């Protein structure tokens, strides 16, 4: 989509040629001179136009306004949250219309946060999944112009939001694709396609290379499926080769049936989203290709299916991970940690400044935090704070979770160095403690996105989270020497 930020007053908006205009109006709106402003003041006085968040007044062919359709949306105090929800409400009736050009204008002041919120709402509204529909509705929208009183003050925030929007589209698209249209092999091809951009490089390792590396834990998860596993290594080089990279590791289970510890049938289809961590890494690399920041980033994606079959790993089987740790697989449905632990060991070779893994890891995290905040685990306070602050900046929130050593007590095994599950209590934390064992050699954080990566029910679909948090986090590291 073509997005543009422009400086304009209300008088400028009146002249702007587009199919529809949305005007965001905050509490205490002070009309500038001109016909449109006077009309708005009158409408507010008559209580036809309400500046409370979510209230929308729609009009057609308003005299003096170039756009035939217009909606005046209340944004309350114009916080980022207000702008996002108000714009989402105003956009809903426009989604089905054959809109080609849309103008969105702030009637009053706009700051960086509200501009970012507006861009995020626009990207959210105009993405529609079509890939596996035979009669896909056509997407008509070609151009969106955002009008603010002072574009130069908001340009950087706008550019970031657009890059994050583009990245989130990539993440949503891949997460949404059904498992038979998003196999490990297809994910590898998508990564290779992304890497065609400048400063990008991609290597995809297949079963033979992974066996040679000794990734016995990852291989154990993949062995029940006829679909070959892939280990994707993406690199973005924006800084000197000597600068230590930040490594992102995305869980890429393209379908999680649970394996021999099979999941119940209801909602099992949603386990096609179990590669949302991988999708967020792909989306983050898309954003890097747009912004080209001066930083080095490595993306690692262990991708495979988790299926039951006569070749599948069985409860009680003991496997040897890449770093030599033996693991008793008590529950084959705790497979995310099994693929991630080998990727965490592989990450050591980059001498990383930090490693962050992103995973739809536990149902327990959904119980703990719901769909609002992602779980952020880190043994490093600085790293945890970077991620949480980035989440706030990008309006993609996280919440810090604990990592006390006592949480690892339940992972003891009589037959291996460690078991892959503990009991039900604190399930999101015990999973993180399992990963912690494999991440001792660098500052590490783990983001559990099981509750935030997709929505169920009627609005079933991927959210693109936490691309915003990740991109903002990486941009924040550009300054850190
Ligand atoms: N992919 C799931 C986690 C998940 C479940 C995410 C539901 C979103 C919604 C993961 O592989 C899994 O199955 N985890 C198990 C771990 C358990 C066996 C210790 C879980 O959470 O039930
Ligand atoms: Mn599972
Ligand atoms: Zn899983």
Structural class: alpha/beta
- How many structural domains in the coordinates? 2
- The termini sit apart by 35 Å
CATH topology of the largest domain: Aminopeptidase
Q: Please describe the biggest sheet, giving its number of strands, its sense, and whether it closes into a barrel.
A: 9 strands, mixed
Question: What features would you describe in this structure?
Answer:
The protein is α/β, with parallel strands linked by helices and 481 residues long. The protein folds into 2 domains: 2-150, Leucine Aminopeptidase, subunit E, domain 1; 171-480, 3-Layer(aba) Sandwich (Aminopeptidase), CATH 3.40.630. It is built from 14 helices and 20 strands. β15 (374-378), α12 and β16 (398-401) form a beta-alpha-beta unit. The radius of gyration is 24 Å and the shape is elongated. Bound molecules: ligand BES, manganese (II) ion (MN) and zinc ion. Zinc ion (ZN) binds at residues 253, 256, 274, 335-336.
């Amino acid at each position: 989509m073509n997005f543009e930020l422009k400086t304009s007053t209300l008088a400028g908006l009146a002249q702007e040629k587009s199919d529809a205009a949305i005007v965001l109006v905050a509490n205490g709106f002070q009309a500038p001179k001109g016909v449109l402003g006077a009309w708005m003041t009158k409408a507010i006085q008559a209580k036809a136009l309400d500046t409370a968040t979510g209230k929308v007044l729609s009009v057609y062919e308003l005299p003096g306004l170039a756009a035939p359709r217009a909606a005046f949306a209340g944004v309350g105090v114009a916080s980022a949250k207000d702008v996002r929800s108000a714009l989402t409400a105003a956009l809903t009736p426009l989604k089905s219309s054959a809109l080609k050009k849309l103008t969105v204008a702030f009637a009053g002041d706009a700051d960086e946060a509200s501009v970012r919120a507006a861009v995020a709402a626009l990207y959210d509204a105009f993405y529609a999944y079509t890939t596996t529909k035979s009669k896909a509705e056509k997407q008509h929208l070609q151009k969106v112009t955002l009008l603010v009183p002072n574009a130069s003050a908001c340009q950087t925030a706008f550019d970031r939001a657009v890059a994050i929007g583009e990245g989130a589209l990539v993440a949503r698209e891949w997460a949404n694709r059904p498992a038979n249209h998003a196999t490990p092999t297809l994910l590898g091809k998508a990564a290779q396609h992304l890497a065609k951009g400048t400063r990008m490089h991609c290597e995809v390792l297949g079963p033979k290379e992974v066996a040679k590396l000794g990734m016995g834990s990852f291989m154990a998860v993949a062995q029940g499926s006829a679909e070959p596993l892939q280990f994707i290594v993406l690199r973005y080089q924006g800084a000197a080769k000597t600068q230590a990279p930040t490594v992102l590791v995305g869980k890429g289970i393209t379908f999680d049936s649970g394996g021999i510890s099979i999941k119940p049938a209801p909602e099992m289809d949603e386990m096609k989203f179990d590669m949302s961590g991988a999708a967020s890494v792909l989306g983050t690399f898309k954003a890097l290709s747009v912004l080209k920041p001066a930083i080095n980033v490595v993306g690692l994606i262990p991708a495979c299916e988790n299926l039951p079959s006569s070749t599948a790993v069985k409860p009680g089987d003991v496997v040897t991970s890449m770093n030599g740790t033996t693991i008793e697989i008590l529950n084959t449905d705790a497979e995310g940690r099994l693929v991630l632990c080998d990727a965490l060991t592989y990450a050591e070779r980059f001498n990383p400044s930090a490693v962050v893994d992103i995973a739809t890891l536990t149902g327990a995290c959904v119980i703990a935090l719901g769909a609002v905040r992602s779980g952020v685990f880190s043994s490093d306070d600085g790293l945890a704070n970077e991620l949480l602050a980035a989440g706030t900046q990008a309006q993609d929130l996280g919440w810090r979770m604990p990592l006390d050593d006592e949480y690892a007590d339940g992972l003891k095994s009589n037959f291996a160095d460690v078991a892959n599950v503990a009991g039900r209590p604190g399930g999101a934390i015990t999973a993180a403690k399992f990963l912690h064992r494999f991440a001792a050699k660098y500052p590490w954080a783990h983001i559990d996105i099981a509750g935030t990566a997709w929505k169920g029910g009627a609005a079933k679909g991927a959210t693109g989270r936490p691309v915003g948090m990740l991109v903002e986090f990486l941009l924040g590291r550009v300054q850190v020497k």
